[in-house]
Amino acid sequence: MTALSLKGVNKSFGAVQVLKDINIDVEEGEFVVFVGPSGCGKSTLLRIIAGLEGPSSGTVSIDGTEVTRAAPSKRGIAMVFQSYALYPHLNVRGNMSLALKQEKQKKEIIEQRISKAARMLNLESYLDRYPSELSGGQRQRVAIGRAIVREPKLFLFDEPLSNLDAALRMNTRIEIANLHKQLSTSMVYVTHDQTEAMTLADKIVVLKDGLVEQIGSPMELYNDPCNQFVAGFLGAPSMNFLPASMINEGDNRTLGVRPEDLIIDDQGPLSVTVEHVEQLGGDTNLIVRSDDHQLTIRLFGQHNIKENAQIRLNYLSGKTFYFDADGSRV
Ligand SMILES: Nc1ncnc2c1ncn2[C@@H]1O[C@H](COP(=O)(O)OP(=O)(O)OP(=O)(O)O)[C@@H](O)[C@H]1O
Ligand SMILES: [Mg+2]
Predict the structure, then answer these.
(1) Site to substitute for ligand 1 among 44, 48, 161, most atoms within 8 A of C-beta
(2) In the CATH scheme, what is the code of domain 255-323?
(3) Most buried residue among 20, 173, 188, 306 by CB atoms closer than 10 A?
């Protein structure tokens, strides 16, 4: 069964159209990530799924039932926001039980669900604490716990990790992935972070300016992007682009090659100057320049290459992409 189906969804605020003919299906148990730059319409789309906002046209169906005009509470969804939005005057247990009490669930059921969620999220020893007595990561886990206890048909996450520092972001990301494995409930997750998209998603939806650019599994999008935007958005460091004419590969086209697919080769077609060396320990990134074009090369391991060195580059065959002037893949 399709857990969520968006058909022909448009949204305008006044004269500004922020979502344009969005068609997306989320299958049961699927983890779908909406990714795209700031302002592309991700949160608006999530709010339309949640029922916090109505579409200007188009339909939203959850579990096969159209809910376009249904109230949020009638949709069987639970949403987790970037700002944890916990009630400061309630302890962790109180925050997690509130929605269930409002639903008039039995006390035993509430207790059962809270202990199960607390176990999953490692919050068992914090149930009596207040939000002010928790770290940012713990608060976000409570916000996720509050969603879990409701046993929704669909989880919606809007940038749940962006208030956390880098290490905590990675831990919590892994926790969310594990949570999805344990619950196998469908999840829609919004982020502008391509790493989160690549690591969490079964299916990624890339959005730009209110339009769906491409939908596919992380590796489909990485290996076979339909245009220059998707090619440049997924992957870190991002794909290099340069005029194909620079390496005699034809005029009026752009060549794309990922940093890991560039190699140092004395016989290579491209001569560059090393501008900067980033030693990451496990990897080395070289930032190099040829004329007006800056490129990044990712080398495995440690390399003793000096800034200002002249080197020649080649690329792995079969690892190049070509794009038209309008950015579409050739
Ligand atoms: N209530 C509103 N009234 C008018 N314009 C709005 C409203 N809400 C959002 N917008 C506009 O719609 C566009 C999409 O906003 P949205 O919040 O969905 O972007 P986003 O992709 O979530 O961005 P971010 O990554 O910064 O959170 C933006 O240009 C925003 O200014
Ligand atoms: Mg947003």
Answers:
(1) 44
(2) 2.40.50.140
(3) 188
